[in-house]
Amino acid sequence: MNSIKIILFLNVLIFSFGCAPTRYVKPLEKGEQSINAHFGGPITKVPGIGAIPLPFTSIGYGYGLREDLTVSGNMYTTSLLFGIGQMDVSACYQPWKKDRMGITVSPALNVLVDFYTGANRLWPQVDANYYFDYSVYRSRAVEGKNPKRINTVYAGLSNWFDPYLTESQGRKNEQFWIPSLQIGHQWERRHWDYQLEMKILAPIYSNENIVVDYPSLLGNYGALGAYFGVHYKF
To answer: Are 150 and 29 in contact (CB under 8 A)?
Structure first.
């Protein structure tokens, strides 16, 4: 039963790569901390209900190491219901910024462990995003802080790498590089950030003959994903 469980779960993950939205669109301020929660996943057809995002959830913590660098760690809480531990450690680095726009690069390492069988997997990941702050408002200082409201749009590419020669079912792995495209919006406030993101997951791979039925803009390739994130900064 446990082996079947992890096989089914890993099949779902085939189109769940990046099963959370972009963790940090922009780095936190130096010394700033953040706790976050993310919801959503690939959109799938559920009999009797319709097409809905898979309800994956995760929680995490981030720390502004420098003005241009944030480090973070996240735990996937939905996976725990299946007896599977899944987490990632990542960074958000900003190599370029000009006025209201910038580019961020986010390397990450994703870890999955089956608590019952001991099976485990490691997946490296590198994301890149371009963002534009199209609306910025800063009021007068209040209690030493600068209350702010910033609205941001962003778009980018997520790259998930599967270094294993075989998949969980023992079949030959033909998906060493799994790209995804994302576009999103962030509402940034002094302490709270809210985020919506849409993804085209694995657009170069067929979505036929797999466990879950995924609708896609590309017909028999890829899948759509919908995500929501919230951060509290302090």
So the answer is: no
**CA torsion through residues 209, 215, 220, 221, sign:** negative
Give the span between the Cα atoms of 125 and 152, in whole angstroms.
24
**Residue 172 token pair:** 């030959």
The answer to whether the predicted template modeling score (pTM) of the entire model surpasses 0.90 is no
**pLDDT top residue among 132 and 140:** 132
Contacts of 215 (CB under 8 A, 6+ apart): 43, 44, 45, 51, 223, 224
In CATH terms, the fold of domain 2-233 is Porin (2.40.160)
Domain ranges of the chain: 2-233
**Sign of the Cα pseudo-torsion (215, 218, 221, 226, in order):** negative
d(CA 232, CA 225): 24
SS3 state of residue 208: coil
Could you tell me if 13 and 44 are in contact, meaning their C-beta atoms sit under 8 angstroms apart?
no
Cα–Cα nearest to 17, from 56, 73, 60: 56
